[in-house]
Design brief:
The protein is mainly alpha-helical. It is built from 5 helices and 4 strands.
């Protein structure tokens, strides 16, 4: 192979195969000392052929991995919705039975964290702001308007309309 990197796997394999063919054609019974190691034509060709074989095996393994990945993705497309529904079924069936859920590798549903008084106040202020911003409009127009609550530096709630 040349000192310049090849751009594709196919080009790299072709370069190694060209080295093999050129060596067999030009030096059918030669001997070489390369990097303080003595090689005959047969041993050099065997070394280059091992590289070519490894490249070919790598290409085959990568194609097999791509095929396995596409097979997995196809299976997941079909199975994931079923798995999600089944997990929800198991959660509903064994909601209060932690050992039974553990048998399926599931954790019990988490309880929501209690809201603080500030969170309740912010929620109520946003609801007021949304109702005020919507006014008396049609049902479709009401859906497009949302209220927004912001705080100024004195920690007072301000109502704004988007």
């Amino acid at each position: 192979m040349s000192s310049h990197p090849t751009k594709t796997k196919a080009a790299a394999l072709a370069a190694v195969q060209a080295l093999i063919a050129g060596t067999q054609k030009r030096f059918p019974s030669g001997s070489f000392t390369l990097g303080n190691v003595a090689y005959t034509t047969a041993s050099l060709v065997a070394l280059l052929q091992s590289v070519a074989d490894a490249m070919t095996a790598l290409n085959a393994a990568q194609l097999a991995a791509k095929h396995a990945l596409s097979t997995l993705q196809g299976a997941l497309v079909q199975a994931v919705p079923v798995i999600q529904v089944y997990e929800r079924f198991l959660q509903a069936t064994f909601a209060n039975t932690v050992p039974a859920l553990a048998d399926f590798g599931l954790a019990p549903p988490k309880e929501p964290a209690p809201m603080t008084s500030e969170q309740y106040a912010a929620r109520a202020a946003k609801a007021r702001a949304t109702r005020e911003a919507r006014g008396t409009t049609s049902a479709k127009q009401k859906l497009t308007v949302k209220g927004d609550v912001t705080r100024n530096t004195s920690s007072d709630l301000l109502m704004t309309v988007d």
